[in-house]
Amino acid sequence: MGPLFFLALAFAFVGSRHGAVTLWALSAFMLLAAGWAGRANVAVTSRLPIAVISFTGLILFNAMALSPAYTPAGLYQPLLLLAAFFVVRHFTHRAERDAAIAAAFSCAVLAVWGLYEVGLGGIARAQSLFETPATFSAAINLALVPMLALLLVGIRSRIMVAGAVLLSAAVFAADSRGGLLAIAAGLGLAAILAARVRLLHPRAIAILLATLAAGWVLAVAVRALPVPSTESGPDAADRAASSSSRLELFALSWEAWKERPLLGTGYLTYRYALEKNRAQVPSYGASGETWFVHNDYLQLLQELGPIGLLAFLGITLYPPLLAYRRLPQLAVDDRPAAVGIAGAMAAMSMHALVDFPFYVPFCLLLYGALLGALDRRLGVISQSPSMTKGSPPIFRIGRAGVLTLAAIVLLRPVAAEAAAEWGLRKAVAGEQQKAAFWLGAAQRMEARDWRYHWYAGQFWIAQAAQGGNREAARLAADAFAAGFDANSLEVKNLLGKVSVHRYYRHLLDEPADAATIQRWITQAADLAPMNADVQRELAR
């Protein structure tokens, strides 16, 4: 079971960097396989599933029905959180231990990777394959804080202390203020919980501080290795500029929310708000790009509305409060683990105030697993009836139908991604007929995803340029038009339409007139006024 959970984390990790739907699907599959292998025949009764289902269901509904910018991340990111929660919630004790070991080992691998980058790779701040050092530290903290919390309550071993030193060194090497703030918040909550059940001892605090000090010394020693660095670490001016930049992002998100205060602008639409209002974020200039506000609470308010923020608080604020209330009722053996789990969740929830860990699949998977582990301790456990025997036929048929529909919805983006990737490879290889078939298949499978229309439009416009093919010009115009219809916030397909109707109008049966093309350019300028391609079109 442990290897399956490790593979789920590995696929989520690589998918976090590349945004690949196939990797997210493999992560979910491995997670479900781990759940099947480690499932205990028990039922857990509590209210925490309501909060998890509400949050993930709201994201799914928004991504599928409300957002003007559909993305498969809106399907798979909440899926990983939800699946990890229910899988770990029903683990046996041994399966949970194996999953914890797999998580700790995966984070240890990432920590070694990050320290290698800083010591021998010429990189100023550790981040491995994560987008930023901050998200790297958020991931590491999900394994580090439980270890530190266990040290805080007097539970320790040589392996645990060594692991805590390694992981804390990686966080210090990442040099993320948010990561350090998260550790402080996680340990603060752990100390409060430990004191509530009289598990806090002065000697344990001294050991904890010594462990963190050893991690800091290790990070300093790695930085001191005689390897020339190609980067310089952030100084006081850089940190001040970073803080100022985030305030600009915060203000922009707040203004975007006020335009649609009830339902929000749609899941993962912040990037389009930035493109439209770059003048309000001068620190990002004309080309700096981000999908994130660097404050998950504010971003979810903007994208999902007040109901989304309330649902988010249900998985960030409610679990620690529930742990505080029920901790004295737990068995003595369960209390240390509950303290560590709640501390790790508090760390990520605090980090979400200054970064975006709840938009990173790897972090979502681990957070969902921690939620499940906490719920199994705080809920009421009873024997679970068989999943099949004794169930009415109508129930089994309905469940099979729901699972089939879910599989179709979730596998369609995977198939579309595979078809598009194969079509692009065939185009590079010069096999134009096969490329056209597979790119068209991707368009049909995921008609709401603007990227596949863009790929097809680029392919067909190249065919029109090479041979003056009238059919290719028509297909390019149709692909770009379909892409803009799918996502009216993305400027690329709109500019593609302009290019086809301007430069290949002699190949089109009904080319757009000059006034229509000018209207499209004006529309593009409204969507992304500082975009370089838009500026070139305005100059013409």
Low-confidence stretches: none
**Portion in beta strands:** under 5%
SSE-based structural type: mainly alpha
Mean pLDDT: 90
Give the total of domains: 2
State the separation between the terminal residues, measured CA to CA.
Answer: 61 Å
Strand order of the largest sheet: 1-2
Series of secondary-structure elements, N-terminal to C-terminal? HHEHHHHHHHHHHHHHEHHHHHHH
Which overall shape is indicated by the principal axes computed on the Cα atoms?
globular
Biggest sheet: strands, sense, closure? 2 strands, antiparallel
- Quick one: how many beta strands? 2
Radius of gyration: 25 Å
Proportion of helical residues: over 70%
Count of helices?
A: 22
List keywords for this structure.
single chain, 2 domains, two-stranded antiparallel ribbon, 73% helix, 540 residues, Serine Threonine Protein Phosphatase 5, Tetratricopeptide repeat, 2 strands, mainly alpha
